[in-house]
């Protein structure tokens, strides 16, 4: 018997709610009789909005409470930005569905300057991510990189209030919330290599729940799933979290092969290790792991160790 009710856990931020409503719209379009309820929750990451992300630490800051709701039955599925989902899921949960990817690139937003090159030498640039900071400082060592947290609307008002000359944030969030016209310039992957999973929405659920699977599996985009699989395998091998400047971005070529670029940098941009690898998309996870190991050999292991992380451990084997 098909399921008649679907409870969806989400964070309360405007972007999270937009993403969850998008999932609800798509399920509703395929199964008009299903009654959908949003379960809006506050996560630890939403509470500590004034602390720089890199200092908050911990994994799964934006997902843990949603996972608890899945495990205790308060919700049937949880909708996440893939960028925020830790590499290892709790026992009993799975993440089988990833929606088609929105623009995965970072955006340059400024009210006075048209691109990074136009900024003054000591420009004040706001960003919440060490990955963006590292790549930015590598090219423009004079920039003052200032922390920028809060939801998308808050970040734009901080720019408008003159706190920064420019800010960097994900294009996807801006576009989804209708702020696409605020994007002064999209940074291509060579200028700012995107984060693992950036621009992709994932659906987490209880393992072995066929009724729920029936409702959500048609939403899966196989191309996005294979790209995100490579990126997450890369990140898992590096044992990366928010405290490390790591970028990882996979694309599919026209012939179906997968091409992935990765980087590990010093937060201050004094060193950025980059590598790329290409192979059959059927080996997405293996390509991600091999790319990570190449970077570790080329010196990324030293950066990760200095940051107090422990990347050199046996491969997890999956
Ligand atoms: N770290 C917060 C976060 N998680 C997902 C997005 C954007 C949307 C996406 O990548 O899907 C953002 C905001 C940002 O990085 O500017």
Automatic annotation (TrEMBL):
Catalytic activity: 4 porphobilinogen + H2O = hydroxymethylbilane + 4 NH4(+)
EC number: 2.5.1.61
PROSITE patterns attached to this UniProt entry: PORPHOBILINOGEN_DEAM (PS00533)
Molecular function terms from GO: hydroxymethylbilane synthase activity
Keywords annotated in UniProt: Porphyrin biosynthesis, Transferase
Cofactor stoichiometry and binding remark: Binds 1 dipyrromethane group covalently.
GO BP terms: protoporphyrinogen IX biosynthetic process
CDD domains for the chain: PBP2_EcHMBS_like
Metabolic or biological pathway, per its Swiss-Prot or TrEMBL entry: Porphyrin-containing compound metabolism; protoporphyrin-IX biosynthesis; coproporphyrinogen-III from 5-aminolevulinate: step 2/4
UniProt enzyme class: transferase
Cofactor or coenzyme needed: dipyrromethane
Segments forming domain Porphobilinogen deaminase C-terminal: 226-296
Domain Porphobilinogen deaminase N-terminal as annotated: residue spans: 6-213
One of the record's GO cellular component terms: cytoplasm
Family recorded in the similarity comment: Belongs to the HMBS family.
Assembly description: Monomer.
Function: Tetrapolymerization of the monopyrrole PBG into the hydroxymethylbilane pre-uroporphyrinogen in several discrete steps.
Misc. comment: The porphobilinogen subunits are added to the dipyrromethane group.
Protein name: Porphobilinogen deaminase
Organism (species): Ectothiorhodospira mobilis
